[in-house]
Prior knowledge:
Its main location: membrane. By secondary structure, the protein is an all-alpha fold.
Amino acid sequence: MEGYGADEAVIALKLKDASNWWHDINESTLWQDRIFHILAALYGLVAAVALVQLIRIQLRVPEYGWTTQKVFHFLNFLVNGVRGFVFVFRRDVQNLHPEIVQHILLDMPSLAFFTTYALLVLFWAEIYYQARAVSTDGLRPSFFTINAVVYTIQIGMWLILWWKYIPVLVVLSKVFFAGVSLFAALGFLLYGGRLFLMLQRFPVESKGRRKKLQEVGYVTTICFLCFLVRCIMMCFNAFDKAADLDVLNHPVLNLIYYLLVEILPSSLVLFILRKLPPKRGITQYHPIR
Length: 289
């Protein structure tokens, strides 16, 4: 019995030390700045990769305009660049007034991130329906309508909060983001899954088919998990002060969250979709390869 008591005391001491470690880092101004600057550097790196890829695509096929592939890489550059800029000046952002300005600077890149990856869902939906000889005329208008509705609702809530700060509306804004993220996750599961199954049934065995199958499977899995984790975390963020991502004294939580839902997924997707389009005259150009 005495042995059990000693073991419990050791476990309790270790848990206390772990709790102190977490608390010490979160409350340290030095560690806050270090972690936010690490996030800024990582976002800057991803933004640079997206920009380089955009330039390479433009040099490869300069005769084409703003294809889906180019827009996707440009939005990746924009989202990660803005997010990195915000984390460079994270402490200054926290001191901005009115407080709604802080929410706009922290949340606008999340909206743009949704639009960026919704482009992939649109692209896959077009491929899927074209392969089944179904009209795709309504897909792009639907894409723009969905984005317009999402931005209108969010901007409307921001304007109300600018006029009068209502704590309940802040919670609703975070829940709305969670709902948008869940919608995106289901979009990837629906159209990425459909396209994956369709490619599996494709009769021709070739290296190109296998690579496309792997590409769709990997990107679907990564993006589905990314938006699902974002949805879950935004729900905690809305209702649990200990999971608040909008404060300076939760840098470790910020590091884990943004690594999982933006930096790592973006890096992996950019790597998977790194293939350049073929030069004109060799084969027909496909927007995203």
